[in-house]
Design a protein that fits this description.
The complex is a heterotrimer of chains A (216), B (209) and C (243). Chain B is mostly helical and 209 residues long. Chain B has nine helices and two strands. The chains are: A alpha/beta (216), B mainly alpha (209), C mainly alpha (243). Bound molecules: adenosine-5'-triphosphate (ATP) and magnesium ion (MG).
C-alpha cells in the first residue's frame, strides 16, 4: 500500500438513490491523520456518500480508490469492510447482540478469530472506550448513548484504518457526546464524519466540505 | 414445501380444503382480537425470514421455518400461514389457490405438532430463568425436524392419495430435494431458539400455554 | 423508451375483487380439466395475456420469466419420475405415466399463466383488499391487511441488519459461521417484531382499544366461509367425477 497516497480518493463521484441523482461530480480526498467533516442539510446525501464508500450504494459514475485500490465491484469492496469501519446513523441497526461483548466480537469472528480471541479483543475494546461495565448487558436494554458507544466498540474491534461516522453525536446529551468525542480524538484514526453538530465539528474537524443540495 | 396446481385429485383437494378451513377457523378463535398485531408481526417476520438465502454447496436454499413458527404461535399458525400462502400464490405463483388448503395442512399441521411437543422444553422457569442451553438447542432442532419432516410426510400422503404408485419416484425425488432444507432448517432453528432465550426471553414466554 | 413503472395506481375495489375471484375460479376449473387440447389452448391464452401484461409494463418480463421457471422446476421433477417405470433392471418408458405427466404439466402452467395475467401488477396491498372483498371472515381479513403492512417494515429491518452485518465484514458462505450469523439475523427479526408488537399494544391501549371501531366490511360469518369452501369442494368433486 502506498503510504504517501491518500487513503480515500474519489473523482467525479455520482451517486443515485432509487434512480434519482443525489450527489453529482463530487471529489473527495482523505489523507492519513485527517478528520474530514462532510456538512450539508438533511437529504443532501451524506449517508449516501458514506454508504457508497463501502459499496452499499453503487457508483453511477466517477472513480473511487480506497487504500490505494480501485474499487468497482462487490469483490473489490468486500475485503475493505473492516479496514474501513462504518458507524451507522441509527446505532440500533448495528447492534446484533445478544450482549454488548458478543456484539463487539462479531467483526473479529468474521475475520477468522477464534471465539476466545474475539472475546478478548471485544473486552479490550470495551475497556478502551470506558464501557467495560456494559459487557454482559443485552443490546436491546441500552440507552441511546450507550447504544452509540457499543456500536462504536463493534467498529473499533475490527482495528479499522479509517472511520466513517454518520452523525455520531446526534441525539446524545452533552456528557455522552463529550465522552464519544474524546474516544474519537484519542483513537488517532483518520476519519470522515457526516455531522450537523457544531460541537462535534469544533472538537474534531481538520477539514470540512459541504454537500450541495441535489441538482434538480 | 409447496405442491403445485394440477397434481392432486379433486377429493384430496376438497378434503384438505375443508380440514384447512376448520384449522383456520379454530386458530382464529384462539387468537384474541388484541393478539392480531402480534400474530401479523410474527407472520410477517417469518415471511421475510423465508427469503433469507442459506448457501449450501454450489446453490442455496430458502428457509421454511414452519416448526419454529408453530412453536411460537400454536394454533394461530393456521390463519398466519393461510395469509402467507395466499400472498405467495398471488404474488409469486408459489403453490396456488386450489392447492392452498392442501399446502396449508402440509405446513401448519406439523407446526401445531411442534408446538405441543416442544413448548414445555423452551418455557422459562417460574422465576424467569431460561431453560439450559442444551435443551433449547434440542428443542430448536426438533422444530426443524418435526416441521420439515412432518411436511414431507403429509405432502407424500397427499400425493399417494391422489395417484398411488404413480407418484412413488416423485415422492422420493421431492424428499431428496428437501434434504438440504431439512438440515439447514434444523440447525438454524436450534441456534435461533437458543439466541431468543437470551435476547428476549419474553419471546419464548409468549409461547402460550 | 419504457421506464420501469412503479406499482400502478390501485384499481377500484370491485375490479380487484373480480380479478382475484376469477383467478381462483380458473384455478379450480383448469386444475380439473383432463383434455390436453383444452389445456394447451388455456396455456396459450394465458401466455399471450401474460405477455400482453408484460408489454404494457404491468408485469416486468424478467419477473414473468422467473416465475415461469420456478413453476417448471416442479414440472421438470415430474418428467424425471412419472414416465419411467422401474421394471427388471432398468427404467422403462411408460406411456400412461408420460400422459399423466403431460396433463399435470399443462394444468400447472395453464393455472400459473392465467393467474399471472389476471393478477399482473397487483401488489400485496391490492391482494389483501381484493381478498377481504371476497368475503374472508373479518378477523382473517384484518390479519391479512396487518401482515401486509408489517411485511414492508420487517423487510426493511432485514435489509438494514444485512447491510450492517456486511459492513462488519460478514460474508456468507457454506460454513458454520454463516449458519450462526443467519440464525442471529432471524432472531433479530423476530425480536424486532416482538418489540414492535409491544409498542402497538401500548398504542392500542392508549387509544382505548376496547372502543376502537371495527372496519365495516360485510360481516361474513364463519359458517358462510365454511359453506363457501364446501360448495367449492363439492363443485370440484363433481367436475372430477364427470370428467
Ligand atoms: N433507501 C432509499 N431509497 C430511496 N431514496 C433514498 C433512500 N435513502 C435515501 N434516499 C434519498 O436520497 C437522498 C439523500 O439521502 P441521505 O440519507 O444520503 O441524506 P443525508 O444527507 O444523510 O440526510 P440526513 O442528514 O437526514 O441523514 C434523500 O433525498 C433521500 O430521500
Ligand atoms: Mg444521513
Amino acid at each position: 500500500m502506498n503510504a504517501a497516497g491518500p487513503l480515500i480518493l474519489g473523482r467525479g463521484l455520482r451517486l443515485a438513490r432509487a434512480g434519482k441523482v443525489v450527489v453529482e461530480a463530487f471529489d473527495l480526498e482523505l489523507h492519513a491523520g485527517e478528520r474530514l467533516f462532510v456538512l450539508g442539510a438533511s437529504g443532501t446525501g451524506k449517508t449516501t456518500l458514506l454508504h457508497s464508500l463501502l459499496g452499499f450504494v453503487p457508483l453511477a459514475g466517477g472513480e473511487l480508490q480506497l487504500l490505494g485500490r480501485t474499487c468497482r465491484s462487490e469483490q473489490d469492496f468486500a475485503p475493505l469492510r473492516g479496514p474501513l469501519g462504518l458507524l451507522f446513523q441509527d446505532a440500533g441497526d448495528q447492534l446484533f447482540g445478544p450482549t454488548v461483548a458478543e456484539d463487539a466480537a462479531f467483526g473479529p469472528l468474521n475475520r477468522g478469530a477464534s471465539a476466545a480471541e474475539a472475546r478478548e479483543i471485544a473486552l479490550q475494546t470495551l475497556a478502551r472506550i470506558g464501557i467495560a461495565h456494559l459487557a454482559e448487558r443485552p443490546v436491546h436494554a441500552l440507552s441511546g448513548g450507550e447504544q452509540r458507544l457499543a456500536a462504536l466498540a463493534g467498529v473499533l474491534a475490527m482495528s479499522p484504518q479509517v472511520l466513517l461516522l454518520d452523525e455520531p453525536t446526534t441525539g446524545l446529551d452533552e456528557a455522552a457526546s463529550e465522552r464519544l468525542l474524546g474516544v474519537l480524538a484519542d483513537s488517532g484514526l483518520s476519519m470522515i464524519v457526516a455531522s450537523h453538530d457544531p460541537a462535534c465539528v469544533g472538537a474534531l474537524a481538520t477539514r470540512r466540505i459541504t454537500l450541495a443540495p441535489a441538482p434538480r | 414445501m409447496h405442491l403445485a396446481e394440477g397434481v392432486l385429485s379433486a377429493p384430496v383437494l376438497a378434503g384438505a380444503a375443508a380440514l384447512a378451513a376448520a384449522g383456520v377457523a379454530f386458530g382464529l378463535r384462539r387468537l384474541g382480537e388484541a393478539q392480531l398485531p402480534l400474530a401479523a408481526l410474527l407472520g410477517a417476520a417469518f415471511f421475510v425470514a423465508s427469503t433469507i438465502h442459506v448457501p449450501v454447496g454450489v446453490g442455496s436454499v430458502h428457509l421454511i421455518l414452519n416448526g419454529l413458527a408453530g412453536l411460537m404461535l400454536g394454533w394461530a399458525v393456521f390463519p398466519v400461514f393461510f395469509v402467507a400462502l395466499l400472498l405467495q400464490a398471488a404474488l409469486f405463483s408459489f403453490g396456488g389457490f386450489t392447492v392452498l388448503g392442501a399446502n396449508l395442512l402440509i405446513m401448519a399441521l406439523p407446526a401445531v405438532a411442534a408446538h405441543y411437543l416442544l413448548r414445555r422444553l423452551v418455557r422459562p422457569a417460574e422465576d424467569g430463568t431460561p431453560p439450559p442451553r442444551r435443551r433449547l438447542l434440542v428443542a430448536g432442532a426438533a422444530c426443524g425436524i418435526v416441521g420439515i419432516g412432518g411436511a414431507a410426510a403429509l405432502a407424500s400422503l397427499a400425493l399417494v392419495l391422489s395417484g398411488g404408485h404413480l407418484f412413488t419416484e416423485l415422492i422420493g425425488l421431492l424428499v431428496l430435494a428437501h434434504l438440504p432444507v431439512f438440515v439447514v432448517d434444523a440447525l438454524i432453528s436450534a441456534a435461533t431458539v437458543a439466541l431468543l432465550a437470551r435476547m428476549l426471553p419474553a419471546a419464548l414466554a409468549a409461547v402460550r400455554a | 423508451m419504457r421506464t420501469a413503472l412503479p406499482a400502478t395506481a390501485t384499481p377500484p375495489a370491485p375490479r380487484l375483487r373480480l380479478r382475484l375471484g376469477t383467478a381462483v375460479g380458473i384455478s379450480v376449473l383448469l386444475s380439473q380439466l383432463t383434455s390436453p387440447g383444452l389445456l394447451l389452448a388455456a396455456c396459450a391464452a394465458g401466455l399471450l395475456l401474460a405477455l400482453a401484461a408484460s408489454a404494457n409494463g404491468v408485469l416486468p418480463l424478467h419477473s414473468l420469466l422467473r416465475r415461469i421457471a420456478s413453476v417448471n422446476l416442479f414440472v421438470a421433477m415430474l418428467w424425471l419420475t412419472l414416465p419411467w417405470a422401474l421394471q427388471g433392471g432398468g427404467p422403462q418408458w411408460s406411456e400412461a405415466g408420460a400422459h399423466h405427466a403431460l396433463l399435470i404439466s399443462l394444468r400447472t402452467n395453464a393455472v400459473a399463466l392465467g393467474c399471472m395475467a389476471l393478477l399482473a401488477g397487483l401488489d400485496a396491498f391490492a391482494i389483501a383488499r381484493a381478498a377481504a372483498g371476497l368475503g374472508l371472515p373479518s378477523r382473517l381479513a384484518r390479519l391479512l391487511v396487518l401482515t401486509v403492512r408489517y411485511l414492508g417494515v420487517l423487510d426493511d429491518t432485514r435489509r438494514r441488519i444485512d447491510l450492517a452485518m456486511r459492513a462488519r465484514g460478514f460474508r456468507p458462505g457454506a460454513n458454520r459461521r454463516t449458519v450462526a450469523v443467519l440464525a442471529q439475523q432471524l432472531a433479530l427479526i423476530l425480536v424486532h417484531a416482538m418489540l414492535r408488537a409491544e409498542r402497538v399494544d401500548l398504542a392500542l391501549r392508549a387509544r382505548a382499544f376496547a372502543t376502537a371501531p371495527q372496519p365495516a366490511t360485510r360481516a361474513p360469518r364463519p359458517w358462510r366461509w365454511a359453506a363457501g369452501t364446501a360448495a367449492l369442494c363439492l363443485g370440484s368433486s363433481l367436475l372430477w367425477l364427470l370428467r
